[in-house]
Amino acid sequence: MSTATTAEAPAKAPTGIRPPVMDADGRIGPRANLRHIGALVRRNALQIKQDPESMFDAVFMPIIFTLLFVYVFGGAVSGKGNQGEYVNYLIPGLMAMQGLNIAMAVGTGINDDFKKGVMDRFRTMPIARSSVLIAKIVVEIGRMMVATSILLIMGFILGLSIHTSVLELLAAVGLSLVFGASLMWIFILLGLTMKTAQAVQGVAMLVLMPLQFGSSIFAKPTTMPGWLQTFTDYNPLSNLADAARNLVNGGPVAHSALMTMGWAVAITAITAPLAVAKFRKRT
Length: 283
Known about the structure:
Blueprint: H1 30-50, H2 56-78, H3 83-116, H4 118-123, H5 129-157, H6 166-193, H7 197-213, H8 226-234, H9 236-249, H10 254-281
Helix pairs in contact: 1-5, 2-3, 2-5, 3-5, 3-6, 3-7, 3-9, 5-6, 6-9, 6-10, 9-10
Protein name: Transport permease protein
Subcellular location: Cell membrane; Membrane
Domain ABC transmembrane type-2: 53-282
């Protein structure tokens, strides 16, 4: 009887991953990199389609937060009977918070993917390491857009009114997406550094709570003690909330928007290279 030597079959690449076109220095070319990102985005999107429960946070959190803060805290913050006025203050602020919540999920997801061996499979493929992480961020930006759309729908149902224009509303949404994408690099790095998804979530909450509640998202800083007002002034979420609020309600935008973009660029420039390097070296 003849025998045959069996070997472990190589990992099957996602649809669209083809042998890369190398530059003269041996690097993967930009066209191949974009093609790989597109294939990985499609793979991640199909995963969401197969597991609709992964969209629960993007769908239900905006509804819960809006109802909770408008009807439970709105009267205390803006005075009884002034919930309508508080809606116009709160909703642009919650746009800033959406990115932070979605970004935390990215970190736990990356950590879980390593535990399942998914990322080890990707690292054996002839693709740029950054394309795996960028594809993840692109899909999460899509989830953030869904969450923001639901938030705005809830806002309009509860009486949100736009005192500027649709273009300025879209600018507020775009600013929130850009800043949210920069935050994802922080949580990706955290997910690649911590040993478990629970640890990522625990550390993330230690970051989330002070940033969210020590900001102008829920209440005006003028009601806070002096030391907390100082923290709020330098809190990037306050800058984003103020920029979005003024784009929706009218008011000076330039300073807050420039500060938000500055934070987004700085965060991405520092954490993105660190995250890619950590992705390459993680065992």
